[in-house]
Amino acid sequence: MHPLMIALIASAGLGALIGLIRQWHEQTEQNARGEYAGVRTFTCWSLLGCIAAFVSDEYAPGVLPVVLVLVGAHFVIGRTQPANRDPGGSTTFAAAMLTVLAGSLLYWRQHQEAVLLGGLLVVLLGLKRPIHAWTHAFTPTDIRATLQFVAVSGIVLPLAPNEAYGPFEAFNPRSIWMMVVLISGIGFLGYILMRLLSARVGIVLTSLLGGLASSTATTLEFSRRSRDDPAHSEAYALAVVVACTVMLPRVAVAVALVNRPLATQLLLPFAGMALPGLAFVAWAAWRQHRRQHRTDQPAVGNPLSLMTAVKFAALYAGITFLVKAAGHSNHLEASLLPLAFVSGLTELDAISLAVAKNGNAGAETPSLAVQAIIVAAISNSLVKGGIAAFLGSRALRWQVAVVMSLVIAAGIGAFFLVGSDGA
Q1: Closest Cα partner for 183 from 159, 207, 156, 149?
Q2: In the 3-class helix/strand/coil scheme, how is 256-293 assigned residue by residue?
Q3: What does each C-alpha distance from 401 to 133, 241, 341 come to in angstroms?
Q4: pTM of the predicted model as reported, rounded to 2 decimal places
Q5: Per-block average pLDDT, block size 10, for the chain (423 residues)?
């Protein structure tokens, strides 16, 4: 079959699919207009783009630009008519222009790009109502969180130099800020999921997502709530344990993105440290189900701010420098493990990513990097237990204390087990 015939058939199918979604949406609107662009119109636009690309290549180079101008002029003239001044006109105009271009891409044998473009159009046209409902629920906090994440990932990162500076060439601005984007992205994703699902899910799922956003913030929130509402301390203790347990796979995933072999070695130690939390979750969930307690879901604030990002960048840079310096020292084990413990008191992700990124620093002792992350996880668990003991109710204190004690004991056992394997 001639390539032009194949392109025409593909263009007709892609245009029809886009038009079908548009027509379905228009027909299901309560105040649907009598005239709208549907299957026939979008099919014609896609075919028009394909034919225009063919004519431009073979006969007259200016045909495709002229077609785009004519399609645009058609919408501009139509918008001047009072009957056509509807909110969806701009969307239809953009979809029409993109459909014409998709037909052109199919003629030029850019099939993957054309299908991707068509798929995106179908999704955007079909999700009008959910998108509108979602944006109506936005709060100023949501907008601030989005803008701050865009600033962290889309503005600062491209401007950061990708060169090593300072002693031991330990400071690479692009690498340092990439870690900020990584951690911020995980936290931002957790925050968005909580905003979308918290109205329909229970406290367990909320705390699970809270552990993705910030296990420390979640521990603080539920510990305070347990003191204000001691009758539901068991549910709040469950939330704290879930958030702290989620911290372990979250760190493992972050490490895997930087150093997969190291993450593989962390699986068994982290699994052992997660067992007490998982056992408590099963026990507490069973008891809560039997009692049919209902607990208000926590209001989780913005997990990301520019100040938080700057602090993390400074902390990560400092730890990276110390890890590099330890790598050049003849006493690596004596310096890295205390550093991991101190760092874990404030931030587990920073030391974990610094060790993962600079894994070659411990090449002579492969188990040292794993031990350092385990030590950081132990000290971080100590801090979470301290927060619960200081801010929580009496019932929450002892439940969290039991779980955290078992987690720390499992971590200590894993530390020596890894050390004996690497000896």
Answers
A1: 149
A2: HHHCHHHHHHHHHHHHHHHHHHHHHHHHHHHHHHHHCC
A3: 42, 10, 20
A4: 0.56
A5: 82 85 70 63 88 88 86 75 56 83 88 85 78 70 74 80 79 80 67 61 66 73 80 83 90 89 92 94 76 53 58 72 63 69 78 76 63 91 89 90 94 88 60
